[in-house]
Every structure is written in C-alpha cells, then in structure tokens.
Amino acid sequence: MKMYLRLMKYPGSKTVMLPEIKRIFSLSRSNMLIDVFGGSGLVSLNLRAEKTVYNDIDVKLINIFTTIQTNPLLIKSMLYEILKFVGAEDRNRVSFHEWLLGKNLHNNRSELDLIESIYQYTTGFGGMGSTYATRNEKSKATFISKILGNFWEIQQAVHSWTIENLDFRKLFEKYLSSEAFFYLDPPYSERAWYNYNLTRNDYLDLKSILFNLDCPYLMNADFMDRELVGIFGKPEFIRRYVNENGKPGRVNDRIKAFYTNIPGAGENLSKT
Ligand SMILES: C[S@@+](CC[C@H](N)C(=O)[O-])C[C@H]1O[C@@H](n2cnc3c(N)ncnc32)[C@H](O)[C@@H]1O
Predict the structure, then answer these.
(1) What separation in Å is there between the alpha carbon of 104 and the centre of ligand 1?
(2) Which of 12, 247, 42, 9 lies closest to 142 in space, CA to CA?
(3) Which of 36-50, 158-172, 254-268 has the lowest mean pLDDT?
(4) Is 256 helix (H, G, I), strand (E, B) or coil?
(5) Is the CB of 57 under 6 A from ligand 1?
(6) Residue 205, strand partner residues
(7) How buried is residue 233: exposed, middle or buried, by Cβ count under 10 Å (0-12/13-18/19+)?
(8) In the chain, which ranges are continuous DSSP H helix?
(9) Closest residue (by CA) to atom 13 of ligand 1?
(10) How far is CA 43 from CA 48, 140, 175, 182, 193, in A?
C-alpha cells in the first residue's frame, strides 16, 4: 500500500479515497486545491497541488498548521515530548495534562493548549477516541514516530499552504473568482465527531452554493448518510471500499457517494 503523509488520527480521514480524489483533481485541470473542510490535512498534504488553500473552522487545527509554518521546531519538540509520555504511559499513571504540569515543560497557556491539541489529534481522534476507535490501530508510539520520520516532508508541504480559518460560506465568497478546484469532505450529519458539525440548514446552504458553482468541485459523503444524500440527491457516482477495520467475517464495506460537476469524473465507475 502506498505510504501517505499523515499528521493526525482523525475520524473520516480519507486515505483509501486519495487515488480517486487525485484522479478527479487532475481531470479538473486546475492547479489550485481548496480543501474546504480540511480536518487533519490529509488531502491537502497528499494531493501535491501547485497551490493549496487549507481551511477549517476549528481553531485548534489552525494553530497546529500555522505553527508548523512559523515554528516547526516547536512542533517537532512537542511531538518528541508526546512520544516520551506515550512510551511510558502505563507506568506514568497520570493524565498527559498532569504529566506536563509536573514536568513544568510549558508555562505559557498558548503552548500548553497547543501541545494538548497535538496530543489529542495524534493519539485519539481529536479527543473523540472514546466514540471512535479502530480495531487494528497502530500503537500511539509507532504512529508518532512515523510522523517524526516524515516531519520534514510534512513541514515542506504545509510551508506553501494558504491557511484559512473560515466558515465554508465565507471561504466560497473569498475564492469564488479564482481558478480553484474545491474539495469538500463535510462532517457526517449523523455523528458528532468534530468540535464543529453541520446542521440541516448548513447542508442546504452548501447545496445551493455547489449547485450554482462555476468552478470545478468534488464532494464526497458517506452513501449511508441519509440526511445528506436526501438533501443533495443522486450522486454522480459511488464507490465501495473494503473496510479493513471491520470485524472478520462481517461485510462492513463503506460506500462513498461522489458529487461533482467535472465532466467524465464518473466514467467506468458505478453510476447510481
Ligand atoms: C469530515 S472532516 C474533514 C476530514 C478531512 N478530509 C481529513 O481527511 O482529515 C470535516 C471538518 O469540517 C470542519 N467544519 C465543521 N463545520 C465547518 C464549517 N462551518 N466551515 C468549515 N469547516 C467546518 C470540522 O472542524 C472538521 O474538521
């Protein structure tokens, strides 16, 4: 399996779909990716567009990515501290917060918040670990060591991004006249996985923006997300992905719905 750059364990991360997203991005002939609901940054990190605009409404994510741009060594040293903590977690018997305070590692509030967000996002799906866990999850230490091993490449990629912290409506207003390709991976309607989720009215606003958009776009959603599929209607095409985290013997594949205005994007694939 191809190795991708990853910085976080994030619910709804799009690793299996990256080849499809890349294919459609190149069909769009755009050189500018706008990752409207950027999340862990997986798509922005791996599409390698000439220009990338990463956006998310969650300020914790924005702080991580902007600090990678302005002070990558601080982020790297924080990852080493987290690695030290998780490596001895069973013996520590204290929470990460208590451990940090005990070590007196960061005495300013914004650094403490930053390292705690990095800890949450690299070890437990942004704090949603209790509601979202996968069976064959690699150990925390292995995951963080991998990030450190790829940190230079991650830093290089993030360095050239434009980072925005806008609600999606404002982001579209700002970039509407650009030559952009908009990629959208909105929060699922049925699961409160993120610090920010969308309401029915938000989905309706998103639909009216997309269906009147002149720029190329691609939106993916879970085909089983009845509310979202009910609002957006029949997708351009669907794809089935084998769920490698599912219980053995149980058919537990994920079916993804793709909405796009790019001609030919669904050719040779299952139409609904
Ligand atoms: C499904 S996740 C994106 C996952 C991402 N594609 C990845 O691979 O990691 C949806 C993201 O939308 C963000 N979000 C929620 N409401 C938003 C809004 N109104 N405007 C912009 N982003 C929003 C959430 O903070 C969350 O990170």
Answers:
(1) 33
(2) 9
(3) 254-268
(4) strand
(5) yes
(6) none
(7) exposed
(8) 18-28, 42-47, 59-70, 72-87, 89-92, 96-103, 109-123, 140-149, 151-159, 168-175, 200-211, 226-232
(9) 37
(10) 9, 22, 19, 12, 18
Q: Model confidence over 102-160: pLDDT tens digits?
A: 888 787 899 999 999 999 999 876 544 444 443 333 488 999 999 999 999 999 999 99
Of 4, 45, 8, 44, nearest in space to 119 by CA: 8
Residue 169 near residue 212 (C-beta atoms within 8 A): no
Q: Two tokens at 238?
A: 């669907």
Does residue 17 register a pLDDT over 70? yes
**Residue 167 in contact with ligand 1 by CB distance below 6 A:** yes
- Sorted by where each begins, the domain ranges of the chain are 15-260
The preferred substitution site among 16, 25, 37 for testing ligand 1, maximizing ligand atoms within 8 Å of CB, is 37
Average pLDDT for residues 1-28, to the nearest whole number? 86
Looking at per-residue pLDDT, the higher value among 64 and 196 belongs to 64
User: How far, in Å, from the CA of 86 to the mean position of ligand 1?
Assistant: 27
Helix, strand, or coil (residue 140)? helix
> Tell me: domain 15-260, CATH 3.40.50.880, correct?
no
Report the distance separating Cα 129 and Cα 150, nearest Å: 24
188 Cα nearest atom in ligand 1: 1
Degrees to nearest 5, angle at CA 8 with 188 and 6: 110
Residue type, 134: T
Task: Give the pairing of strands 237-241 and 254-260.
Answer: antiparallel
Please indicate whether residue 143, judged by its CB atom, sits closer than 6 Å to ligand 1: no
For residues 131 and 242, the model is more confident at 242
| φ, ψ for residue 241, nearest 5 deg | -115, 135
Ligand 1 pocket: which of 34, 60, 194, 225 to mutate (most atoms within 8 A of CB): 194
